[in-house]
Amino acid sequence: MKLTEMKQILAAGRIQLTKSLGQNFLHDQNQLRRIADAAELTPADAVLEIGPGLGPLTEYLLARAGRVLAIEKDLRLVEFLRERFAAESKLTLLHDDALDYLRRERSDWSDWKLVANLPYSVASPLLVDLAESEGKPKRITVTLQLEVAHRLVAGVAAEEYGVLSLLMQLDYEPKGSFKIAADCFFPPPEVDSACVTLERRSKPLLPPELRPVFKRLVKVGFSQRRKMMLKLLRAAWPAERLAAAFVTLGLSPQIRAEKVSLQQFAELARKLGAGNPGAAEGEDRGTAE
Fold it and tell me: For residues 57 and 47, what is the distance between their CA atoms, to the nearest angstrom?
């Protein structure tokens, strides 16, 4: 679907796009092809697409995958998609809020791939929710705001390294990314975007029961980035346990969270979570900085 065709469809249907829904439709065919390539789709794959819009990416997904489930919030676009892909048996189209749907249904996506041009407003909480679910997708290839993409793939000590980096990388390894300019979308967003691919780790870094402890550690540790992490964590754990854990892991009492690696956070969760089920009290739902 080219830009001229996209504009004609919107005009004919008298569809005015809504900024609050993050309706910036990718029309550049080269970028759409690169996204489909990055997903490494085969006829054996089942794909979850969130926010298909007018279906430019959906078309590529249907051509390569064996099954596509697309969730679209805007009823006007759902009606258009139903008509456009009426003869396509591989497509299941749902009219729903994707974030609400994923939290409500709690489906098993472990054999699925997520491939989508995500609405900016829900990208981070949606990805964190999926990563924390028992049936997390085996591969994620998503287009989102460039700043968020940088945070997803950031390593320790990078400026973008933080809560989102750690909550996602606990379960996923970054496999590549590429920038997408604003003029590849209609209407053009105010910022550049990027496509990021994440692959589920073959072996979890932590057992499920320690995930709340890890999440609490990360959130408290980064609650005030310029402060020493040990002092921040004392609000949630006994000082003597923290001191012993820091010594065992070779962490300086003056270290800030931005200098603590994913593996060190995971080991801290093991040390502080062992025999201490109350360590993660005060846990909140998975949004990230």
Answer: 12
